[in-house]
Design a protein that fits this description.
- The protein has 8 helices and 20 strands.
- By secondary structure, the chain is an alpha+beta fold.
- It folds into 2 domains: about 220 residues, P-loop containing nucleotide triphosphate hydrolases (Rossmann fold); about 120 residues, Nucleic acid-binding proteins (OB fold (Dihydrolipoamide Acetyltransferase, E2P)).
- It is globular.
- It starts with 6 loop residues before the first strand and ends in a 7-residue tail after the last strand.
Length: about 375
């Protein structure tokens, strides 16, 4: 049986050659969590995952699994199972033997092997495929086998290194849902690496956004999306990403305003981390769903009516994205109106002041 374990990474430093890839990194994964490491290529997320698995030696720091120091333990002794991006299946073995291979070479009793294989096959819908060889399987089926090979180990921690990136969009969606359900069934600790923000947002109980070997923010998907800690996180998450507008804070008539080029937003009720500094330039960030354009189906209300010129309309099925030019700034708005709207048309819009983020321009940190 799987026994979910916590993972504690402390002051981790990893060097590859003369380059320091990760320096002084801390990460706490609670038992039973689904933690996603998200970031662009080269940010250190796979390196971090492989160090937890024991495939990369650390230069400094410690890695604890289930309360035990595993920094220098052999991979086989860590109680982890790793699923790679490539399927890495044995082509001459059928699915059943691929699933059971590690158990057989470890001398696991035959009855126990059969129990684990049948359980994994049932959970991953591999029962009818057990006698097939990898060449007879689709990409999605092969990835299920790769995941099943990890499941039969009944590890304390499951590690996934971009397991869906080789699949087409439809298969990724299907397997993403199955992974979520699998986590709910097992209650296992899972750490998952991806550069795909949709995977991160839909799978994670908590997510760590990484850049340059540093965790920029660690929190629930809702927290990270709604309250990004810096400009990198703000623009890395979201499709389209958060619109950024530069300006200053001004106090006027008992209210606090963000003043940009021909733009005023009342930020009196914004939850500042400290006393706002009116002398420093700042950046206002707003998500496209919080920019409300006025069309035939709805009208602007409750805010300052602004007017932008449509530069691009992107139909997305159940909604469309409007790109509006407002005095040289490109502002994205998610719009539900289905009526045709030509480029160059002028439309009023408003910004929901209750949903904006503010950042210090110099440090890029959230105010």
């Amino acid at each position: 049986m799987t026994h979910p374990a916590n993972v504690a990474v402390r002051n981790l430093r990893i060097e590859l050659g003369v380059n320091t890839v990760i320096d002084d990194l801390d990460l706490d994964v609670r038992a039973g969590e689904f933690v996603v490491l998200l970031g662009p290529s080269g940010c250190g997320k796979s390196t971090l995952l492989h160090s937890i698995a024991g495939l990369i030696d650390v230069a400094d720091g410690s890695i604890e699994i289930a309360g035990e120091d595993m920094t220098w333990a052999d991979p086989k002794d860590r109680g982890v199972a790793l699923v790679f991006q490539s399927y890495a299946l044995y082509p001459t073995m059928n699915v059943e033997r691929n699933l059971s291979f590690a158990l057989r070479i470890n001398g696991t009793p035959r009855a126990e092997i059969e129990r684990r294989v049948q359980r994994a096959a049932e959970m991953l819908q591999l029962g009818p495929l057990l006698s097939r060889k990898p060449a007879q399987l689709s990409g999605g089926q092969r990835q299920r086998v790769a995941i099943g090979r990890a499941l039969v180990r009944e590890a304390d921690v499951f590690l996934f290194d971009e397991p869906l990136s080789n699949l087409d969009a439809k298969l990724r969606t299907e397997l993403r849902r199955e992974l979520k359900q699998l986590h709910q069934q097992l209650g296992a600790t899972m750490i998952y690496v991806t550069h795909d923000q949709v995977e991160a947002m839909t799978l994670a109980t908590r997510m760590a956004v990484m850049k340059g070997g540093v965790i920029q923010q660690f929190g629930t998907p809702a927290q990270v999306y709604a309250q990004p800690e810096n400009l990198f996180v703000a623009t890395f998450l979201g499709t389209p990403p958060m619109t950024l507008l530069r300006g200053v804070l001004e106090a006027d008539e008992g209210k606090l305003w963000f003043r940009g080029p021909r733009l005023s937003v009342d930020v009196s009720h914004y939850a500042f981390k400290g006393a706002p500094d009116l002398a420093k330039p700042c950046v206002l960030g707003v998500r496209p769903e919080d920019v409300r354009a006025a069309g035939a189906a709805h009208a602007v209300s409750g805010g300052e009516a602004l007017q932008g010129q449509v530069t691009l309309v992107e139909p997305m099925g159940n909604h469309r994205v409007l790109w509006l030019d407002y005095h040289g700034s490109q502002i994205a708005s998610i719009d539900q109106d289905k009526r045709p709207l030509a480029n160059g048309a002028r439309v009023p819009f408003e910004i929901d002041a209750g949903q904006v983020s503010l950042f210090d321009e110099a440090s890029s940190l959230r105010l």
